[in-house]
Structures are given as structure tokens and as C-alpha cells.
Amino acid sequence: MEFQLGQDWQLSPIKGDTGKAYLGLKNNAKVFVKRNTTPMLAALSKEGITPKLIWTKRAGNGDTFSAQEWLEGQVISTEEIGQRNDVVDVLYSLHHSKNLIQMLEKIGGEIVTPQMMLADYENALPQPVASNRFLKLVLHYLKTHVPTFDEKDKAVVHGDVNYKNWLVCRHYLYLVDWDSIMFSDPCVDVGTFLGHYRPKSAWNSWLLSYGMMPTSENLEKVYWYALLSLLQEVKKYYNRGDFDRMNDGITQLKRIFSD
């Protein structure tokens, strides 16, 4: 289904999880359009973390459409994302940008604590997931080892750094899809990335390259967020009926939980 935005841009939906992404065409111009995404895109593109923002338009029904530079890049594989050294640079830039903190504060960015994330996981948890013996064991661990989080140390966090949200264009790495952006502990992103794509034996060296000392406290925090992100993935794929990916998530959980 295609539709017009005003009298100029024609939008065609792009298949994806959110159903809010479009290819925008006008004459020979092509842009990537997202509906009702974060107003942070301009600041993020200025930092070079996500592709350049071209324009923002408001439709008659109140929806906001944001257009970014269309890049002929590629989404990379789970194996490749785990081996790329520039992931460290992108996440470090995101988590340590004072400008991004100021911008997210201006638009009322939410501070999300580990307790809130844990409660979100347990909310409407499907009974087969809730009753699974191994998943219950992981959840018990999370409940009894909730990490500390001081809100004055908050950072801008992407919130969903899975491999599908990394785009390579002309050897440059971008992080895309910012619908989950929030204030939180940077270990949310770090733990998610390491838990999915790096063996635990490589966590110490990765943290050092990121600029975080691999102390027992930091490693325990990263481990906690890694487990939680995998539990969230299991719940998501169960709800979608994608049991192959759900089982992949459980397998990865077992790999790092028992390691």
C-alpha cells in the first residue's frame, strides 16, 4: 500500500517489526522514512551515530514522519557484528555524549531502572515461559542480584542493539531504529551486545577497549543485563509464535548462564 505525504513524497511500507518504516520517493530522490519515531534523530545524526536526517513533516492526522539519508548499505550477520571493533566506538560515543543527554532531557526522556525492566519482563508473561524450569532459575537470579543504578550517572541508551539495528555503509557503521531510546545504565546496551554476540572469555578485553574496567562489579552488572535481554527475547519470540528463534535465545541463555 502506498500513500502520499502532502503533495510531494510518495511512501511505500518497508517490511519490519514495527510497521512504521517506509521508502520515500520524490522524482529521483530516495529517503528512508520512519513514522512517529524519536525527535532525537537530528542530534543522533549530528553525532554521526545514525544516518543524516533530511526532513521532518507532520501529517494531517498528527503523525510525524522523519526522513533520513537513504544509504545503500547492508545489515550484517550475527557473526560479523560480534567481530567488529567499531561497535565499541559507536556505543562509547552514544553513552558519553553530553549533547545527547541535554537533548533527551529537553524532550522529557524517561529514566528506566533495572527494577522497571524486570517488572516489564514479568508483565503479561506467557504461562509456558513463566513455568519453564530453566527460565524460572534465570529469573530468580535476576531478582536476587538486581544491580545498583544511580540516576545521576544516567546515559543515553539505545535499548535494542541486536544485529538487525546495525547498518554498514561504505565501511562505516551506523546504529539505527531508535524507538527504544531512553536514559539508563550504559550496561543495558553493553550487556545486550556482549550477551548475544561475544563469548564470556572475550568480555574483559572488550570492556577495556570500551573504557570500562572489568571489575567484578562491572562484570556482574553486564552479566545481569545480558541475561535479562535474552529473557526478553525469549518472551518476544514466544508471543510471535517464532519458536525457532525463541529456542535460539534459550540456547544462548544456557550458554552464558552455565559458563
UniProtKB/TrEMBL annotation:
Protein known as: Aminoglycoside phosphotransferase domain-containing protein
Lineage start: Bacteria, Bacillati, Bacillota, Bacilli, Lactobacillales
Organism of derivation: Enterococcus diestrammenae
Gene3D superfamilies: 3.90.1200.10
Any Pfam family matching the protein: APH
Aminoglycoside phosphotransferase domain segment(s): 40-210
Record InterPro entries: Aminoglycoside_PTrfase, CcrZ_PhaseVar_Mediator, Kinase-like_dom_sf
